[in-house]
TrEMBL record:
It comes from Salinisphaera aquimarina. Pfam families: MerR, MerR-DNA-bind. SMART domains: HTH_MERR (SM00422). Coiled coil: none annotated. This is Mercuric resistance operon regulatory protein. Keywords: DNA-binding, Mercuric resistance, Mercury, Transcription, Transcription regulation.
Length: 145
């Protein structure tokens, strides 16, 4: 199949397919006599794997590792370790989001929604004149690693 069909089957754009090729996640396919890339069902299966892993929050580096494991170069214990690590990151992000929600909710309750902007507790907190909003931790996923 050609790249457009592969992208459509996978629910992603053509440029995303090319990006995954450049990143080494999807092997570059053979080209036909006309120069067009010719993808196989294996390429489609691998791309579905990548897309699903991405939706679960795995980084490109983690997906690369999962693909290596899928290709038979590892163990279930390694897959489980990756999954547990990802769950820990998700739990940490959820805790950060909950703290942010609580703080913003408290600030929103204290704001009447009318009157002079200079006395707005939300603006004051953001400007550093009141309770400081919680600072979320940067996870590996957000830092691009």
């Amino acid at each position: 199949m050609r790249i457009g069909e592969l992208a459509q089957r996978s629910g992603i754009g053509v440029e995303t397919v090319r990006f995954y090729e450049r990143e080494g996640l999807l092997p570059e396919p053979a080209r036909g006599a006309n120069g067009y890339r010719r993808y196989t069902a294996d390429s489609s299966d691998r791309l579905v794997f990548i897309v699903r892993a991405k939706r679960l929050g795995f980084t490109l580096a983690e997906i690369r590792e999962l693909l290596t494991l899928q290709d038979g170069q590892g163990s279930r214990a390694q897959v489980m370790a990756l999954a547990e690590h990802k769950l820990g990151e998700i739990d940490a992000r959820l805790a950060d989001l909950q703290r942010m929600r609580e703080t913003l909710g408290d600030l929103a309750q204290r704001c009447a929604g009318h009157g002079d902007i200079r006395s707005c507790p939300i603006i004051s907190a953001l400007a550093g004149a009141g309770e400081e909003p919680p600072e979320p931790r940067v996870t590996e996923n957000e830092s691009g690693t």
